[in-house]
Predict the 3D structure of the following.
Amino acid sequence: MYQSVLDEIYDEVQPLVGQGPVASYIPRLASVPADKFGMAVQMVEGSLYQIGDAGERFSIQSISKIFVFALALKHAEDAIWERVGREPSGRPFNSLVQLEYENGVPRNPFINSGAFVVTDIVMSFTADAKRYLLEFVRMLAGNPDIQYDYEVARSEADHGHRNAALANFLKCYGNLRCEVASVLDAYFTHCSLAMSCVDLARASLFLANGGRIPQHDDPIISPEQAKGVNALLMTCGTYDEAGDFAYRVGLPGKSGVGGGIVAIVPGHASVVVWSPGLTPGGNSLAGIRALELFASLTGHSLF
Amino acid sequence: MYQSVLDEIYDEVQPLVGQGPVASYIPRLASVPADKFGMAVQMVEGSLYQIGDAGERFSIQSISKIFVFALALKHAEDAIWERVGREPSGRPFNSLVQLEYENGVPRNPFINSGAFVVTDIVMSFTADAKRYLLEFVRMLAGNPDIQYDYEVARSEADHGHRNAALANFLKCYGNLRCEVASVLDAYFTHCSLAMSCVDLARASLFLANGGRIPQHDDPIISPEQAKGVNALLMTCGTYDEAGDFAYRVGLPGKSGVGGGIVAIVPGHASVVVWSPGLTPGGNSLAGIRALELFASLTGHSLF
Amino acid sequence: MYQSVLDEIYDEVQPLVGQGPVASYIPRLASVPADKFGMAVQMVEGSLYQIGDAGERFSIQSISKIFVFALALKHAEDAIWERVGREPSGRPFNSLVQLEYENGVPRNPFINSGAFVVTDIVMSFTADAKRYLLEFVRMLAGNPDIQYDYEVARSEADHGHRNAALANFLKCYGNLRCEVASVLDAYFTHCSLAMSCVDLARASLFLANGGRIPQHDDPIISPEQAKGVNALLMTCGTYDEAGDFAYRVGLPGKSGVGGGIVAIVPGHASVVVWSPGLTPGGNSLAGIRALELFASLTGHSLF
Amino acid sequence: MYQSVLDEIYDEVQPLVGQGPVASYIPRLASVPADKFGMAVQMVEGSLYQIGDAGERFSIQSISKIFVFALALKHAEDAIWERVGREPSGRPFNSLVQLEYENGVPRNPFINSGAFVVTDIVMSFTADAKRYLLEFVRMLAGNPDIQYDYEVARSEADHGHRNAALANFLKCYGNLRCEVASVLDAYFTHCSLAMSCVDLARASLFLANGGRIPQHDDPIISPEQAKGVNALLMTCGTYDEAGDFAYRVGLPGKSGVGGGIVAIVPGHASVVVWSPGLTPGGNSLAGIRALELFASLTGHSLF
């Protein structure tokens, strides 16, 4: 059934593919062809379904926040909730306003400021956060060829004044322990991960599977932690469009400005879609529609 | 099983019952004994479970927003989304700040300003919105004895300057069609509904049941609309603690300042808890813990 | 000299007269011909100079805040500074944002919320604030024919939802003692005063003259109070353009949305200009230019 | 007369000297004895009066903004008003909130973000902005021994995360041309100027004297520009207490967190006071009182 669902979605979303602007704040992202569309579904029981450009790598950008957060949760859960909230922000992902009114405590781990704090936490228990995350993601995806795209990372840093503003702001509130420059370097590098829909579907399967992956005896995170991540993705995973995403798709999801979206069907599957054209809120335009169709056709909406 | 789950929850939450301040901005709410605790579960298949003060009426307050919204959805869905958003607010339920920055379009239907717009919409298709809602709720609950508590409604109006500010603000942005005073009157009256946990569990069952109730052939709302309401409850139903509620409970829910919370297990049950002591965010303190235990003991978290 | 200065200004500003939109939120203001221009200078030593439509009455609107504030200062100075600040607002005159962040204490007496509090203070020591202000202004101007324009006042009330929002907001913070409706009624009535440039120049002379008027032995307010009012007018008198007004004109001033501006040359004169076309900030466009020329040609800038 | 005025002030403010916390965010400022008090008056006609610690150097901090701004005004006035406003901010001097809401255009040149833009402008027409400002200030003060305190500058940089946040924020809005690091370096160095009350009184005399200084034939800035600076100082010179300063003192003034305040009596004198204990708003507590007494005893309030 799932393959025919993907076929139907593929046909249905074609008019939307290429709609919406591609992220253009760095050259490497701007040069991605707008007409890409790929989708992959990794079932908990082992099957994998894919369509379109599902095997082509793209810049996962903010989707990396899931993996960094999982590492922090695994090793230092207590530290997180003293320094980050878990409420939707009601403001764009890179807003400084809220941070000022709330004295340097980011609203949740999936806005940029929250991700800086989470990165800072990961840096507190590993000497090389970049290597550490890369190996973690390769292991989750079962693909040792996954790489950072250092040109993207450098480009982000060159255009990263707003992120530098956020990070310095956190630092002045005492909510970063490491140096601003090294946190930003780790963050930009993490965001530069190049992965395909298939890679991402495999790498995020543990969230659909109570914290476990088939190739490992030990859980990645506990079942309760997996539920917590999914809850956060539901309320905070798609920027300032999280409410609309929940309304239309009804699944926890995390999007990236590169046009990727990871959605989780707890107990069943991880679903990944990629198409670079974006909504005004910065989420993949065709991707949201594809996930909406997926939830509707499979009955997998949580609601 | 459900009865023993309720028994276990009842014992477990006793230390929390009576903790947290009771709403005190109007005398009638302030006089409610803090040590009340009731819980009711209405299964889709028909069984009803209850414990403690589940049969005692209390002021449902903001929980009434569910029913008013369902009426608007049923009769005028298109009008809603032109005048209200569906994003979490990131601000207290009665904040004017966001309304000013966003030019009079409330963030979602479950903050006060959003509920005023929804009330205004309901008033556009019925001459007597108060009578209309009362009959709707009586029908849903199968209880013709449900009443408004007009003393509570009057008291709300007397202390309702902040709500009057919000409503006038909406009016100046052109987002109320009716007179400010009549919208506020309807709103305060709706909030004054006195219902028990059992009443509320029955009245909200349609959200767990794809929009249908057993005693009716015609659906109350469509399955898609029911999903939409649940999604909104998940991201916006518990004030500025919606993220935390999703994290801990993992179910769509709507709380009221009277200490009631309605939670929905799509496909299975509606669950209602009441205990008047509140968290800083204005949700029932023992109630949230009871729902967290319910989700954990029954495995009914959506995540 | 002053008459020739007025002549020169009159010629110079002609290209600006009729520029800028006339206030249109109520019909009576919208119907004022855009091409009006009048100016009057009342010297402390007694001379009066005027040009153009200086004898024609217009709706003084926010300029009335000066007179209400002077009454409060005279009778209840201590009460003022517990309930209103004296800092520029950095926000539009009718913003609710600041009021929420600063817990119901208006930034200064010349934004609307501040004027409501000042009106409330005046209402605390007189049974009929409307009559009281009218007599005060007639006395200051030496003109018993000055009247309220009740049609304007009614119209303001009909379109006054934003002001009603502000006043209700103050009330919910406990910063209004009287009923919201009666404060608004007094405020709208005060704003409806119809006066000419000549009337206003005479009525505001006490601010240029250390708190005194020629026709009275007793001072209206003390010299220190007069200085204080002028200081407030300098930093807060022309809405969100106070900094620009200080930069260009260099005199304390109060504007109204009817197109009038009162400026004070301490120790020398009161200067009033009227022209209905407004800047984006809501100040008379030709009026500001006229006052800039006046300060430049006479050397009366304070700086 | 002025010497006896200073004597009287000196006695009068003694109870306030040592009151209020000394700036403590960098060690060098924290170590300044709290009981310092000095005052100097430089008359336009040439006399100099002083009392207390008027000859002792202190860290002028934000007072340096006057001199950097005068340089920008002299060489690139047009560039300024496209990139900085001239309205009071209504927010603390280092707030990011306003900058976000107003898209990276600082409210005025005397809040930190505004000073960064002004510094950036100065850096556009001189290769060495630090050397340039130092020579300018030495020339104005007639004192070639004035120096930067590089330890203070370094310390500021080490604790300057909030300023780094502001500067990066400006950069991301395109409102800084030079590199963030070099603008901050120039800014922190400028702020580290060590000058005495006497130095500062001489150096700011041009603002009281229509833009001229006795030792120079060419004006420093034009008379109109000098008026403009004074107007800005009146509405924006003392952080979020500018309204209160205007109300109590009635003179244009610029304060620094080191406890210095420069006030201008246009046409007559520049007046400088220094005492390190601060008000909650960051202005010298005894200094404001001393200036209030000065204005009152000499009748030099502008109002």
